[in-house]
Every structure is written in structure tokens, then in C-alpha cells.
Amino acid sequence: MASGYWPLFRYIPAMRKVSESPFRLDSRGPQFRSRTMPITSSLYALALTRPTEAAELLRQAQADVQEKYRTYEEFANLHGGRRRHE
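^ that's the sequence the OP posted. Answer follows.
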């Protein structure tokens, strides 16, 4: 998913036997604008009544997605691992 909201990854324990990281990150990094983030009905309602607060919540959600992806990248790079799409 381009928003990065649901990154694709695999965990393959057998890779430890060949000294590689068992964690494989298959997704590219998050690539989104605020309008492409999944918006719940409650956030949509908030955007209609309090657009400034809704924009701040979207900004925080995007920052959370990017931080989560950085954590996954760290896992993928442990023990000489690599990301699949590279």
C-alpha cells in the first residue's frame, strides 16, 4: 500500500541457519500525502467541524507510520539482512 499504513514483511526463521536476518521487508517506504492516508469516519467528521485539529491528527498519523517503517527497516538490516524490493 502506497500510504505505508500496512507494510508487507516476512519472518523466515530458517534464514538464521545461513547467517542472514530472518526478517524480510517487502514494502517500499511510505509515500503519501495527507489526502491519501486512510481516513476513518470519525476523522472525516472532525475534518468537517475542526479542520485544524484533523490536519494535526493526520500529521501525527503520518509521523507514526514513518517511525514504524524505520523500525521495520532496522529489523530487516540486522545480521546483514536486506529488503526484497532493492
